[in-house]
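Researcher: Predict the fold of Acetylornithine aminotransferase.
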Amino acid sequence: MNDLAVNRQTFDEVMVPVFSPASFVPARGAGSRLWDTEGREYVDFTGGIAVTALGHSHPELVRVLHEQGEKLWHVSNAYTNEPVLRLAKRLEALTFADRAFFANSGAEANEAALKLARRVALERHGADKIEIISFTQSFHGRTLFTVSVGGQPKYAEGFGPVPAGITHLPYNDIEAARAAIGPKTCAVIVEPIQGEGGVLPADPAFLRALREACDAHGALLIFDEVQTGVGRTGHFYAYMDTGVTPDILTTAKSLGNGFPIGAMLTTKEIAAHFKVGVHGTTYGGNPLGAAIADKVVELVSDPALLEGVKQRSARLTAKLEAIGKRFELFKEVRGKGLLIGAELVTAYAGRAKDFVNAAAKHGVMLLIAGPDVLRFAPSLVIPESDIDEGLARLEKAIEEVTGATADAAAR
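Model: Structure tokens for Acetylornithine aminotransferase follow.
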């Protein structure tokens, strides 16, 4: 046992202050329940920000972790390994792709995709074709390149000059996209549902217009499916329900159910522009992470599991809409599958975090998606009884926050 005592205050004493974590410290989890260091229990509606798709401590994943951990953890990119090759074959069999690059995170997967798109444009069209088009309120990672491509300027401010050739357009604005995508555009990167930007689904017509414009101007279409991928929307990848196939797809989060892994998927023809030594990673595609991800993909791609996501989505959405009506709290409940956003009415604008904090006190873990939206991204296999219990606890938290607001207004 490690007898070094730590608590929430320890974070402030030893960690770089880029996060402001909750007042409690999670200690263990099982399925869709979690317990903190004080023994308090929570229903987990966060899924580790859409990561623990199969819940905490899934027995099949624990088994794979032990089995692979006793064989081989790491060999470096000077060698390949069996688990990563099996994972690549499984992903390629399920998608449009026939080549994969593995990294450690969604940001790294997007970095690879953006670098590849520029490389393709350079070699096919020349040095002037460098423009990357993204969308306001988008989020693509925290590297300097990906944070610059992301459509939330606050994340790029204060770090000096950002990479050139990046344009941001309004999300779901077809005419703006058609006007902007042109001969100098090398790539368009889009989230099928903007997660951090407020859980905003793309209009299928908007995605079709992007595909058509990219084809017309020799640009690549990149789908950032870091948050929407691996079953989150009720389809293995969200693009599969849009009628649009991207040239490059990025994936992470749920791919490893919490073990850090990301991937960039693309075609043989596009992948050929990345030659030996052009891009790389030390840990990406390590056998331990790949073995776990391979089991995740096997389990989540089961049609019965994906159908279960849709059923749970309908239950969660209907109950949230009823709660919204009862308290006159939500402008809209939106999203797809088990990525759901509940936007607060104007009277509670900017107060999403207050509801998250109150929910924690009542034993339920929630996310925000900006200051006005409560975000729900639970396990894809969360029991219906846990959905019901979590929402019952949430109602108590809402009563607390709205009651306090009413009291304040009356004074």
